[in-house]
Design a protein that fits this description.
alpha+beta; 24% helix; two-stranded antiparallel sheet; binds zinc ion; single chain; five-stranded antiparallel beta sheet
Length: 169
């Protein structure tokens, strides 16, 4: 396993549409393991393959039980409700913005062996699903915001959160 370099905003790779994963082979498993290492090292909540320069539909999400979810070829099949919250991105380091997302999101995806499964989550993990899946279509959360939060606003926002920990996706 290895830490990969995270691509930052301005690199056109982040604006490209990713191709589906078709081979559930060793190469994919190495990519997923490296993405987990990279995400853990960066202390983020989620990472999409294009963020490490790979234009394939694969994302890793660290859920609220601190477990890694591997979502290959993910599709949102249900979304419900609404939540507004601060969002960050490992490809837009050090910045945050308020984004409205559905409160509950159900995703259909394949695991690393190609088996289909569903993941149904609320709150921060649901937000993360939306954020990461957008990456696969070449979109960043910054498209949803009017402006970045100031340092004071970021501080106040996370002080208000029950678990006052910032996580960038
Ligand atoms: Zn991101």
């Amino acid at each position: 396993m290895a830490i990969r370099k995270i691509v930052v905003q301005g690199d056109s790779i982040l604006n490209k549409r990713c191709r589906p994963v078709t081979d559930f082979n060793r190469r994919l498993h190495i990519l997923l393991d490296d993405m987990k290492d990279t995400l853990a090292e960066a202390q983020g909540a989620g990472l999409a393959a294009p963020q490490v320069g790979i234009l394939r539909r694969a994302v890793i999400v660290l859920d609220d039980n601190e477990e890694f979810l591997e979502l290959i070829n993910p599709e949102i099949i249900l979304q419900e409700g609404e939540q507004e919250g601060a969002e960050g991105c490992l490809s837009v380091p050090g910045k945050w913005g308020m984004v409205t997302r559905p409160y509950r999101v159900k995703v259909r995806a394949q695991d690393r062996r190609g088996n289909w499964f569903e993941a149904d989550r609320e709150g921060v993990t649901a937000r993360c699903f939306c954020h990461e899946i957008e990456h696969l279509d070449g979109h960043l959360y910054v498209e949803h915001i009017d402006r970045f939060l100031t340092d004071e606003e970021v501080e106040a926002y996370f002080a208000e959160q029950e678990n006052a920990q910032g996580e960038e996706a």
